[in-house]
Amino acid sequence: MKRRRFCRSAPIGRRLLLLVFCLLWAAPSGAGHELPFYPSYYPQEIRLEALPAAAAAPLLKSAKLHAYVGADPFVGGRAPADVKAVESLAGYVVLTFNPASRTVRTRQSRCEHALGIARALSASRSGYVFHPYAVTPLHADYLAHFDQAQKAKREIQERPAAASTVPLATRLQGPWAESLARPPQYQGRDWDLVVEDVTLESLLARQWTGLNGWLEPAWVKSGWFHAYLLQAATLTDAGARQAVDGLYGRLSSGGWSTDAERLEMERQMVQRLGESCDRVVLGYVLRSEYFNTEFSQGVENVAWDSQTGFNSAIFLRTVKLKDFPWNGWLRLGMASRPAAAWNPIAGFSDPAGRLLWAAVGDPALIPAPYSSEWLPNRTTPVAVTRPATSPPISDIELPEDAMIPEPGTGLLREAGKGKSARARVTYRLVASAFHDSTRMTPADAAYAYSFAYRWGARAGGRPAGDPVVEAATAPLRQALVGFRVVKVDAEVKKYSDTTFTYIVPVIDVYVTGGAFDDATLAALATPWSALPWPVMVLMEEAVKRGLAAFSPAEAKRRGVPWLDLARDPKTKEALAALVDGFAAQAYVPPALKRLVTADEAQTRWAALKSFYARRGHFLVTNGPYSLDKWSEREVVLTAFRDFTNPNGVGTYDRFAIPRRAFVTRLTARGDRLEIVPEIERVERFLREYRIVREPLGKPVSDEDRADVPVCRYVIVGADGAVADAGLSRDRDGARLVVNLKGRLKPGAYTALVALGLRDNWVNPEVAVAQFRVDAAP
User: Fold this and answer.
1) HSE (side-chain half, CA atoms, 13 Å) at 462
2) pLDDT tens-digit profile of 148-199?
3) In terms of pTM, does the model score above 0.70?
4) Contact call for residues 174 and 196 (beta carbons, < 8 A)
C-alpha cells in the first residue's frame, strides 16, 4: 500500500517514467519477498553541469537543480524556504610579511604589527570567523588545541588599541581578504605585508594527488597538518624551520609512545609555527553550499564533509531524492568546468574532476565526514597485530613468502628470512566486478603496490618516472614493509530466497609506524585498486612510449598531452592500438607473472577492448558509477548496480543528519571526571524532520547504543603541557565518567572535555574545569 501511494504521489510529468519502476519495485523477489539489497547508491543517474552562480540560483529555487557544489549562489541575498545550506571549511585568511622588507625585518616588529592588524580585523562577519589559530573547530583535533586557540584570541582582543605605528606597504590578495580590509594597496615592488586568502583547495592540492586518486596522508584532515602546510614554508629562521620539520617527521612516522606525548608535539609544532610571525593566521572562512528540500522534488538525505563539503565521496553515497526510494535523476551544478585530465594517477585534480572521481572511483577507505578518521569502504581492517610491549621487545617477523615491491622496477620479490615490521594489519577485500564485467582479483591490489614503487621510487641512479607521482606515493612507500595474500574466501549472505556471494581476498600488510592507533595504521598502505591492472598497464605504456604524461607538470616538461582516458581522441586512438597488441599476445606485466595466467590476461584485455568499443573511453573502475556521456559543459554518470559490490543504498545513511552531544555539567576530581551530557535526537514527520535536545537517559534515546556519546579529554598541567589524554566510553547511569586514578602527578590541572555522537567531532562544545591532584597521604 505504501508503494502504491508513493507512485501516485509523483509529479504528473514523471508518472510514465515511474510506472515501470513502481511495478518492478513492488514485484516480489523469489517467493514473494522484496530484494533486500540495492547496490550502488540512490540516484540512478548523476548529471553535473557547469553553471555560473547567477544561473544556478533560480534552478535551485524551482527544484530543477538539486544542489550547487562549491559555492554560494545566493551571495548577498536570501535563499527561499525550500533551499537549505550546509557549511564547511573553505580556507584561511592570513597575514604574510615580506622577508625582504626593511621595515619589519625583526621578529619583534613583525609580531607587533601583526597584533595591531589582527585586532583591527577581529570582528567576525558573514562567512568569516575571527580565529587567530590554524586549528579550527572544523578540525577533529580542535579539542587538543582549544586552550591555545582561546589564549591567542584573548591576546588580540584584550590588547589596547595601538598608537601610531610605522605605515606599511600593504597588499590585499583574494576576495575574502579584500572584504575584510581596504587600506590603500601598494603597487610597488617593496611591499611589507600581504593580507591574503589561502583556500583549502590550494593548501591540499598536492596531497589530493595519488595512485588511483586516493593515496592521501592518513592525517590529511588534521588541523596540525594543515598548520604545517600553511605556515612552515614561510619560516625565515633556519632553526625554527628545523625544529618544526623535526616535529613533523615524528608525527608523520609514529615517533611517540603515548597519546599525551603525541598531542603535546602537535601543540608545540603549531605554537612554533606562529612564534616568528612570518605568517599570522587571522581567521577562517566557511563555505556555504545549498540544496533543494522541496516536499516532492527535493533532496531528503544528504551528508557532507566538514572540510570539502559536497565535493566528497560521502555526499554522493548518501544523497537521496524525496520522490524515489532508491532511484532518481540527480542534477548538480558547479561553477567550474572539468579542466583537469581524466586519469586516476595524477589527474582529476580540479574541483569538477575530484567530484567525478568520487563517483566513478571506489576507494578502499573514505574520509569520515565529521572527523579526521577513515571509514572502511571496500576493504575492512579486521585485525591489527603489534609486537609485545614488555621486554624483550621485538618486531613482527615477515613470512618468507611475503611480497616486497622492488624500487624502480616494481617487481614483487619474496621477503626471505630476517625481515620484520612494526605492525601487521589484516584486511578483508570485497572483490566485485569492474565496469568491463571482469572480476577483481588479488593481482589488481598487488599491481597498485607495484606501480607505486616503479613510478615513485628512484633506484640504481634512475630518476623517478614523474615527480608528482613520486611525491604522492611517498607515504605508502614509507609505511609499507611487505604484504602477503593469506587466502581468498567466499562469503555468502542469504536473504530469504535471495543469495549473495562475495569473493573476499584476505591480505596481511606489514607496516612501519607502530605507535599509530589502529585506524591510522589501517590507512597507511591499504591493499586496493579502483582500477583493473590492464588499465594501469595501459596508462604506463602510454607514458613510457611518449604518448602522454601522468601529471600536467611532466606533460609540459616533455611536450606531450596530459593523459586523459576519455576526452582526447588522439590519445584514445593510440591507447586502442596498444590494447589490440596486448590482447593479441595475452600480455602479462613482469610484476604479475606469478599471479596472472595467460588465459586470465587474454580475458582481461578482450574485456577492455570490448568496453572501449561500446563506451568510447578507457575509464574502467569498480566504482558505483560509470562515465556515460560528456561534453564541454556537462557530464552524465550512470549507476553501476553490480550485486557483487557490498555497498549500496543506505550504507552511509547514519551520517545523513549529523547530531551533536553537549556537556551540561563537568565535575573534575583528582581521580575522576564526571560528565552530565545532553544529546540531539531526530524527530521525523512525513518527509521532514527536526532535531531536539534531551538529557541522556531517556528511554527513547537509550534504545540505540550509538546514541550514547563518547568522551574525549585532554588534561593540561600547570606548565601548559599535556599530562594525559584519551577517549572514554564508560558510563554510570545518565553520566559519563573518565577514570584518572593513578595517572597524574600531584599538582594543578585543567581538564578539556568534548563529546562526540555518531562519529561527529566537529564544532564541539568544549567544557573546561580546573582541579588538583593531591599527594597520597
Assistant:
1) 15
2) 999 999 999 887 765 545 678 888 899 998 888 765 566 566 788 999 999 9
3) yes
4) yes
